[in-house]
Amino acid sequence: MTKAELIEAVYSKVGISKKESADLVEMIFDTMKDTLSKGEKIKISGFGNFVVREKRSRMGRNPQTGESMEISARRVLTFRPSQVLKNDLNGGEGPVDEEDDDGDDE
């Protein structure tokens, strides 16, 4: 789904103008960007968590030349879906009990 498709979905479901829908979607994205750039976590109940993690610099290897090189420290964005979202994606099933996953119903 693209941003334009998201704006169209808001427009059709909420009933506000396309301009207002675009402004609303932009406002939400800007708020999320500002929050994440401060290093704060975003938790959306029933959807998941967006978390910024700090990665240290480390030694790596250039796969083309085999030469060792330093990979610089950086911040990365991670997303962890909620159990509700995971269940929706998997057809409403609950967590699978791994000990009894052989399908013999015993």
The value of Rg in angstroms is 21 Å
* Low-pLDDT residue spans: 97-106
Q: What name does the CATH topology of the largest domain carry?
A: HU Protein, Chain A
Number of strands: 5
CATH class of the largest domain: Few Secondary Structures
**What is the topology, as strand order, of the major beta sheet?**
1-2-5
Q: Which superfamily, in CATH terms, is the homologous superfamily of the largest domain?
A: IHF-like DNA-binding proteins
Number of helices: 3
Largest sheet: 3 strands, antiparallel
The CATH level-2 architecture of the largest domain is identified as Irregular
Helix proportion range: 25-40%
Properties at a glance:
single chain, 106 residues, alpha+beta, HU Protein, Chain A, two-stranded antiparallel sheet, 37% helix, elongated, disordered C terminus
Give the helices and strands, then pairings.
Blueprint: H1 3-14, H2 18-37, E1 42-44, E2 48-55, E3 58-61, E4 68-71, E5 74-81, H3 83-89
Antiparallel strand pairs: 1-2, 2-5, 3-4
Helix pairs in contact: 1-2
Short recap of the structure:
The chain has helices at residues 3-14, 18-37, 83-89, and strands at 42-44, 48-55, 58-61, 68-71, 74-81.
Describe this structure in words.
The structure is a single chain. The chain is an alpha+beta fold and 106 residues long. It contains three helices and five strands. It has helices at residues 3-14, 18-37, 83-89; strands at 42-44, 48-55, 58-61, 68-71, 74-81. A hairpin with a 3-residue loop joins β1 and β2. It is elongated, with a radius of gyration of 21 Å.
